[in-house]
Write a structure and sequence with these properties.
- The protein is of the alpha+beta class.
- It has a domain at about 105-180.
- The protein has helices spanning about 1-10, 60-105, 125-135, 155-160, and strands spanning about 105-115, 140-150, 170-180.
- It has a 3-stranded antiparallel sheet with strand order 1-3-2.
- It is elongated, with a radius of gyration of 56 Å.
Length: about 180
């Protein structure tokens, strides 16, 4: 009903007709005043399209809803399982690294290996510690104790004097190392 009233209200105006009618059988009098001028018609407005009929609400059944719930639960469970599996793999890798470091045999080795001099004149005792450990059958080592001695020519010792600059030199030795 409302649509019909709206369509009537939006319809273009009808043309105006003269109200004077001649009695039947007589011709209309041309002396009568012409019809009043008609105002130009307003542009026609097209009515909006009628609204689409509402779709009936989808009413899923029990089995369809149960299927959705199970599908969502399965995908959530799958993602949770993958996260847990990754966590366990990381934990296993860390445990493996820790047990490997515990099973490596470490020993304290004693000996005496000279530290070679580097280009800048400093002793390189890292190389001496590794040489000491490799000499005892191990792969690597780190120095624990270093002994420093001053080595002079025999003349200095025979005459009981202290060495002049340049007559004596300092030597370094690794005496203990941790070997693996």
């Amino acid at each position: 009903m409302c649509l019909a009233i709206g369509a009537i209200m939006l319809a273009p105006p009808l043309p105006a007709f003269s109200q004077s009618l001649a009695p039947s059988g007589q011709a209309p009098d041309s002396t009568l005043s012409p019809a009043a001028p008609v105002a130009p018609a307003a542009p026609a407005v097209t009515p909006p399209p009628p609204p689409a009929p509402a779709r009936p609400a989808h009413n899923p059944g029990f089995l369809e809803e149960l299927g959705k719930v199970l599908k969502d639960s399965a995908s959530h469970l799958s993602s949770s399982w993958k996260g847990s599996q990754k966590t366990l793999e990381d934990l296993n890798a860390k445990t493996k690294d820790a047990t490997e470091s515990l099973t490596r045999v470490q020993s304290v080795i004693t000996g005496r290996t000279a530290c070679p001099m580097t280009a800048n004149g400093a002793p390189d005792c890292v190389v001496a510690a590794e040489q000491l450990c490799k000499g005892k059958g191990y792969k690597t080592g780190k120095s624990l104790d270093i002994e420093t001695a001053e080595k002079c020519s025999a003349k200095v010792y025979l005459y009981g004097r202290t060495g002049a600059p340049g007559e004596c030199r300092t030597e370094n030795f690794v005496t203990r190392a941790i070997c693996q």
